[in-house]
């Protein structure tokens, strides 16, 4: 399996996604600041992966702490959490992971310092294993929604590279293929960072799953030609009403899907659902460096001085979402009710 990120004795090791698809290289972060930079600079990316990276960054920072008592250690933990919190604002998994590590600290704070440090390392490792298990469960639920044969479109990379392994949207596709479904993936290239062409195509090729890369502006034509039977994407944050923040361009795909009466599915672990955010208008959207738009492979593509925007995500209103696939089961509209029911049913795996 692709090792997107892992805890090692010498630090947190990441497959450097900025170098793919041409170079498969790994970087080992030895400090929490290096982990924060890896998240900010997209060495590691994808909501579930950055959540676990954040947890491992906290474990690493606490491990390196020189604190001599628990209150000093807690101060260090808060400072580490704050630095990691500043990296990327949209994916809720990052904040979920920081909260979970802080809660773990609070539960073990009565123990000797070496044991507290060990407990946090173990918590981060659990989160890694849980993420893969959640993806497998999502795959199991979601595969039933995939067509027996034909094209399935995905946007960005919601695969092994965006998680600790197997993937969310690509996990659903992998599970369907494992069940014998004859799926051909259409991967939007996903301008400007090219997660579709660089990452989705790379990992699906490794698995031998037939894949065609299209530029983002070809998606509508492919749908009109009848090449797409279903769409499945990941999510960075799902509001309580079912609105979905995901990679910029997802909204366009969802609107096109509705026009062509193609089901549009979102696959995400329940840690991506943010019941404290009532709807998509309240989801903070990360604005990234405009150089990602103006330059391709180091070459300038836009005249100097022209105004450029680079929002990393958009919000797809719930009305365009046919179903939300989670490890706890499948939610359908009305989402306020179905998501709230899933929230009550940890591990239930029910179809709501
Ligand atoms: O900017 P990125 O590459 O981190 O954005 C990733 C996405 O938008 C994914 O679709 C989302 O995080 C889900 S990954 C399982």
Descriptive overview:
The chain is an alpha/beta fold and 352 residues long. It folds into two domains: 131 residues, Up-down Bundle (Four Helix Bundle (Hemerythrin (Met), subunit A)), CATH 1.20.120.420; 203 residues, Rossmann fold (3-Layer(aba) Sandwich). The strands form four sheets. It has an eight-stranded mixed β-sheet with strand order 6-5-4-7-10-15-16-17. Helix 5 crosses helix 6. The protein starts with a strand and ends with a strand. The C terminus is likely disordered. The protein binds 5-S-methyl-1-O-phosphono-5-thio-D-ribulose (MRU). 5-S-methyl-1-O-phosphono-5-thio-D-ribulose binds next to helix 2 and strand 9.
Topology:
Layout: E1 5-8, E2 11-15, E3 26-29, H1 32-40, H2 47-64, H3 70-85, H4 92-108, H5 113-143, E4 149-154, H6 169-178, E5 182-188, H7 195-207, E6 211-214, H8 219-224, E7 230-233, E8 237-239, E9 244-247, H9 250-259, E10 264-267, E11 273-274, H10 291-294, E12 295-296, E13 299-300, E14 313-316, E15 323-326, E16 329-331, H11 335-344, E17 350-351
Helix pairs in contact: 1-2, 2-3, 2-4, 2-5, 3-4, 4-5, 5-6
The structure holds 5-S-methyl-1-O-phosphono-5-thio-D-ribulose.
Outline of the structure:
This protein is α/β, with parallel strands linked by helices and 352 residues long.
């Amino acid at each position: 399996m692709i090792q997107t990120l892992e805890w090692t004795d010498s630090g947190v090791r990441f497959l450097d996604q900025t170098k793919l698809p041409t170079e498969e290289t790994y970087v080992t972060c030895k400090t929490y600041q290096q982990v924060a930079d890896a998240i900010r600079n997209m060495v590691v990316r994808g909501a579930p992966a950055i959540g676990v990276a954040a947890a491992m960054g906290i474990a690493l920072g606490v491990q390196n702490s020189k604190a001599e008592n628990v209150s000093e250690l807690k101060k260090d933990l808060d400072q580490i959490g704050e630095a990691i919190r500043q990296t990327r604002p949209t994916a809720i998994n990052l904040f979920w992971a920081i909260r979970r590590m802080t809660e773990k600290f609070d539960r073990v704070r009565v123990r000797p310092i070496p044991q507290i440090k060990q407990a946090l390392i173990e918590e981060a490792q659990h989160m890694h294993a849980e993420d893969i298990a959640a993806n497998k469960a999502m795959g199991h639920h979601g595969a039933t929604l995939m067509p027996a044969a034909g094209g399935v479109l995905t946007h960005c990379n919601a695969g092994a590279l965006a998680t600790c392994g197997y993937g969310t949207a690509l996990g659903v596709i992998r599970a369907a293929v494992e069940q014998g479904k004859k799926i051909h993936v259409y991967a939007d290239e996903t301008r400007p960072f090219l997660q579709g062409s660089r990452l989705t195509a790379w990992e699906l090729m490794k698995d031998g799953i037939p894949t065609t890369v299209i530029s983002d502006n070809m998606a509508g034509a492919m749908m009109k030609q009848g090449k797409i039977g279903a769409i499945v994407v990941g999510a960075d944050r799902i509001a309580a009403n079912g609105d979905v923040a995901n990679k910029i361009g997802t909204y366009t795909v969802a609107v096109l899907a509705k026009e062509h009466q193609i089901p549009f599915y979102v696959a995400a672990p329940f840690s991506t659902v943010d019941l404290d955010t009532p709807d998509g208008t309240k989801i903070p959207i990360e604005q990234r460096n405009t150089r990602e738009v103006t330059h391709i492979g180091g070459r300038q593509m836009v005249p100097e001085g022209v105004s450029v925007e680079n929002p990393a995500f958009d919000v797809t209103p719930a009305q365009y979402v046919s179903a939300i696939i989670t490890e706890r089961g499948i939610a359908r509209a009305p989402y306020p009710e179905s998501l709230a029911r899933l929230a009550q049913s940890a591990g239930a795996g029910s179809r709501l």
